[in-house]
Design goal:
single chain; 7-stranded mixed β-sheet; 3-stranded antiparallel β-sheet; binds pyridoxal-5'-phosphate; 14 strands; alpha/beta; 16% strand; globular
């Protein structure tokens, strides 16, 4: 029996996607082989990777002057690739510290360039998005970096910093294609696939063309966006099967009506959960309302023993992976695209019952 999986990542995939992959597992189309066994230079595979790119462009309305790349190394490798490729002019970037992933990105960038931490929400356990005045931004930064949705703390930039001509770079690992994003407002966007796009192993990068081709001298060839752009993400063997499943997920999103339609469903799901948290006497959301994430919803009872009891009983009832990140405790429900509305409704019904029993 499949459970409702609230994992922060890797996370739920649409069951329709898994079933399609299962059907095509042993023999893909008329190829006589599995996608896993195919040469990445074959006609069949070419159609898969080109189809995946076309769907990213269509679903996210990617302007023509942006490259769409399928890379490896996870979101974490982008913490290195971004400064090595984009930080080679003034060797300086601005960053807002909104949690662990932004901190890690800053730490890694500091190995190569000067990193100005413009503001941080560490003072309140990253429960809000800092909104510093524009006058605090560096005038000569090569780029301005944010983690747009903070997977661990459940915050999201609902308003982007106005960086003017300075390219905005955003880690959208845990919110990619969950809501509409105006790609033209960014210099670079990246997302590990395992939260909203497919299996772990693929990283989607969308980068404005004029920002590549200026990598630092010592940049490893595999870390140079230009190399991957020039070779259609096939400089070396790409994560072939992961890209194939990602394409199936994109087809599923398209079938649902595209990102705008998915966003409506995500807003509905988040509202069900936040409305309950706001009215509950036992459970409480940990994030200030205006900065709440649509995808990751942390909450607590205020009593660690009761939290543990809830996580255990929820698991027994078929709601799994609700334990909060080890650095914050409490609970966290990750409600990515593949989580159906029904899963959230049933979770809330379970929480109500738990509240009555433990009042
Ligand atoms: C999961 C996550 C990462 C790390 O991704 P890896 O693919 O494990 O390197 C980075 N940033 C955000 C926002 C994430 O949610």
């Amino acid at each position: 029996m499949r459970v409702y999986n609230f994992s922060a990542g890797p996370s739920m995939l649409p069951v329709e996607v898994l079933e399609k992959a299962q059907k095509e597992m042993v023999e893909y189309g008329t190829s006589g082989m599995s996608v896993m066994e195919m040469s990445h230079r074959s006609k069949d595979y070419e159609a898969i990777i080109e189809g995946a790119e076309a769907l990213v462009r269509e679903l996210m309305h990617v302007p023509d002057n942006y490259k769409v790349l399928f890379l490896q190394g996870g979101g974490s490798s982008q913490f290195t690739m971004v400064p090595m490729n984009l930080g080679n002019k003034n060797k300086k970037c601005d960053i807002l510290i909104t949690g662990q992933w932004a901190k890690k990105a800053a730490q890694e960038a500091e190995r190569y360039i000067t990193v100005n931490k413009i503001a941080s929400s560490a003072d309140k356990t990253f429960s809000y998005i800092p909104k510093p005045d524009k006058s605090e931004y560096s005038k000569d930064a090569d780029y301005f970096y944010i983690c747009m949705n903070n997977t661990i703390y459940g915050t999201k930039f609902n308003q982007l910093p106005d960086t003017g001509d300075i390219p905005l770079v955003a880690d959208i690992s845990s919110m990619v294609m969950s809501e509409e994003i105006d790609v033209s407002k960014f210099g670079l966007l990246f997302a590990g696939a395992q939260k909203n796009l497919g299996p772990a192993g693929v990283t989607l990068v969308i980068v404005r063309e004029d920002l590549i081709g200026n990598a630092m001298e010592q940049t490893p060839v595999m870390f140079d966006y230009q190399i991957h752009a020039d070779n259609g993400s096939m400089y070396n063997t790409p994560p072939t099967y992961g890209i194939y499943v990602l394409k199936l997920v994109l087809e599923w999103i398209k079938e649902k009506g595209g990102v705008a339609a998915i966003q409506k469903i995500n807003e509905q799901k988040a509202k069900i959960l936040y409305d309950f948290l706001d009215s509950s006497k036992l459970f409480k959301g940990t994030v200030v309302p205006e900065d709440r994430s649509l995808m990751n919803v942390p909450f607590v009872t205020g009593n660690e023993e009761l939290d543990a009891k809830f996580v255990k009983e929820a698991k027994e009832a078929g709601f799994v992976n609700l334990k909060g990140h080890r650095s914050v405790g409490g609970m966290r429900a990750s409600i990515y695209n593949a989580m159906p509305v029904e899963g959230v409704e049933k979770l809330v019904a379970f929480m109500k019952k738990f509240e009555e029993e433990n009042a």
